[in-house]
């Protein structure tokens, strides 16, 4: 009877941990996360892990992770930017990584190594996610770090570690809490682990508190404009294209005085390379009349064949346009990638939508001293917040302000410290318009110079912890082996 009661109690605990973590992951991640819940989402399965067999811990962790990603299934399956074969890789890859993190956490916790367990779990997650990102055709967005993007004090550490440091922290805190509470851990080890976690939080949040904009820095008034209608590449030569152009020119003219940069969305127009004047002419007139540089996305059909997803920067002083060709084109048939940076005469860099999912070209711009980047984008309504915050994190990593205009009607202006200074969505209006005065950035940052050093440190930590964990049997007293 006692054995049956123990099994029943273990089963109830496993189901409770699975349900709790799955629900918290569902609410704390995805397209509309609750940031506070992100930190507690892994805690139930981590608390369970050293109290049950290895097999049970892994099954519970994997199931909770898969169910927790359900908040993104519908979007991923119909997304224009995520190839369908990539969807199971994203869902199962993330779930397996969390399972491996929980498994290594358990192996170290039952050996009475709470600090090692607390560090190893996030190291496995970050290191594995980073290695997966190196082969991903769509880069990385929507991670644990993204959920914290509206908390500037938390994300300042990205200027040193990249967003990987924020990612690590979001799993390190619950892992440390679970490690301290694991059965059989010596009191001294609990105290050491608690002290390291407290010191880490003091350092990270203290750095976030002191890393602030220079209030005396010069500011540039910028605007982002996006039409609510999510159209793609309207031909400028046709009546529909001319109507779209007319509406954007009117919006530019109606902007407040003092605006010196206007950013429109990605691929608003389509144009033949030989007919560029049809597109540039009206924008040049609008730029000169307003005294503001205008940035717009267009699909440019090359005379040599193929097409480029292009960002055009039209200077207000009549100089030739700056031309940036999207580097990361994903699964876009016939679209040729670019590999060059481009700036307006004012020093504003140009970038395009999915480019922010990758470390470059953002790092390249920072190393060149760029303090502000204009990013035309095209998002599906579901992932608009997520993707715009990916851009915010890139800005913090590299000390650059970001001006983002996405065709679904989301516009943001964020400074180099991750503060969203202005944001607008259409909400039934024809256009979303965000206007703000942006202080000069702080590029390049330590991350810009050092790159993904922290991610590689996590890879090394995960490998070292794994090697340590596999030496010797599970020595926890009374532990039921898988």
TrEMBL record:
It comes from the Bacteria. It is a multi-pass membrane protein. Gene3D superfamilies: Carbon-nitrogen hydrolase (3.60.110.10). It is found in: Cell membrane. The chain crosses the membrane at residues 56-74, 86-108, 115-134, 154-181, 193-210, 453-470. PROSITE patterns: CN_HYDROLASE. GO terms for cellular component: plasma membrane. Keywords: Acyltransferase, Cell membrane, Lipoprotein, Membrane, Transferase, Transmembrane, Transmembrane helix. One of its GO terms (biological process) is lipoprotein biosynthetic process. GO terms for molecular function: N-acyltransferase activity. Pfam families: CN_hydrolase, LNT_N. InterPro entries: Apolipo_AcylTrfase, C-N_Hydrolase, C-N_Hydrolase_sf, LNT_N. The keyword 4Fe-4S does not apply. Residues 221-440 form the CN hydrolase domain. This is Apolipoprotein N-acyltransferase.
């Amino acid at each position: 009877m006692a054995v049956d009661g123990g099994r029943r109690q273990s089963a109830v605990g496993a189901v409770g941990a699975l349900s709790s973590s799955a629900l918290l992951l569902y609410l704390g991640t995805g397209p509309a996360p609750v940031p506070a819940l992100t930190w507690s989402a892994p805690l139930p399965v981590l608390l369970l892990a050293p109290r049950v067999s290895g097999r049970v811990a892994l099954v519970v962790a994997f199931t909770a992770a898969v169910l927790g990603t359900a908040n993104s299934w519908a979007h991923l399956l119909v997304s224009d930017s995520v190839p369908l074969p990539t969807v199971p890789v994203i869902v199962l890859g993330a779930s397996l990584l969390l399972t491996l993190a929980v498994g290594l956490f358990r192996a170290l916790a039952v050996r009475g190594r709470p600090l090692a367990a607390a560090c190893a779990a996030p190291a496995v997650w970050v290191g594995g996610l980073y290695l997966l990102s190196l082969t991903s055709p769509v880069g990385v967005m929507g991670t644990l770090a993204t959920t914290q993007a509206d908390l500037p004090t938390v994300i300042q550490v990205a200027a040193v570690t990249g967003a990987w440091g924020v990612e690590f922290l979001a799993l390190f805190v619950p892992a440390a809490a679970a490690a301290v509470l694991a059965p059989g851990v010596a009191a001294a080890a609990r105290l050491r682990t608690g002290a390291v976690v407290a010191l880490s939080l003091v350092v990270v949040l203290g750095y976030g508190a002191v890393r602030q904009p220079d209030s005396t820095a010069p500011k540039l008034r910028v605007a982002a404009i996006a039409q609510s209608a999510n159209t793609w590449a309207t031909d400028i030569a046709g009546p529909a294209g001319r109507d779209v152009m007319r509406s954007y020119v009117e919006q530019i003219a109606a902007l407040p005085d003092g605006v010196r940069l206007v950013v429109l969305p990605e691929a608003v127009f389509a144009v033949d390379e030989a007919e560029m004047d049809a597109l540039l002419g009206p924008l040049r007139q609008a730029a000169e009349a307003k005294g503001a540089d205008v940035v717009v996305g267009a699909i440019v059909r090359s005379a040599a064949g193929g097409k480029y997803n292009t960002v055009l920067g039209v200077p207000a002083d009549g100089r030739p346009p700056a031309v940036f060709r999207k580097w990361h084109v994903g699964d876009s048939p016939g679209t040729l990638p670019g590999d060059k940076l481009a700036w307006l005469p004012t020093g504003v860099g140009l970038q395009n939508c999915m480019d922010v999912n990758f470390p470059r070209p953002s790092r390249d711009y920072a190393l060149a001293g760029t303090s502000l980047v204009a990013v035309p984008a095209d998002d599906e309504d579901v992932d608009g917040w997520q993707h715009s915050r990916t851009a915010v994190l890139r800005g913090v990593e590299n000390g650059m302000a970001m001006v983002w205009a996405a065709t679904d009607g989301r516009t943001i202006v964020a400074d180099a410290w991750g503060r969203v200074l202005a944001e607008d969505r259409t909400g039934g209006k024809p256009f979303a318009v965000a206007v703000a005065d942006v202080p000069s950035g702080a590029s390049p940052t330590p991350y810009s110079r050092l790159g993904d050093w922290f991610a590689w440190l996590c890879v090394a930590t995960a490998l070292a912890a794994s090697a340590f964990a596999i030496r010797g049997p599970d020595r926890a007293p009374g532990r039921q082996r898988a």
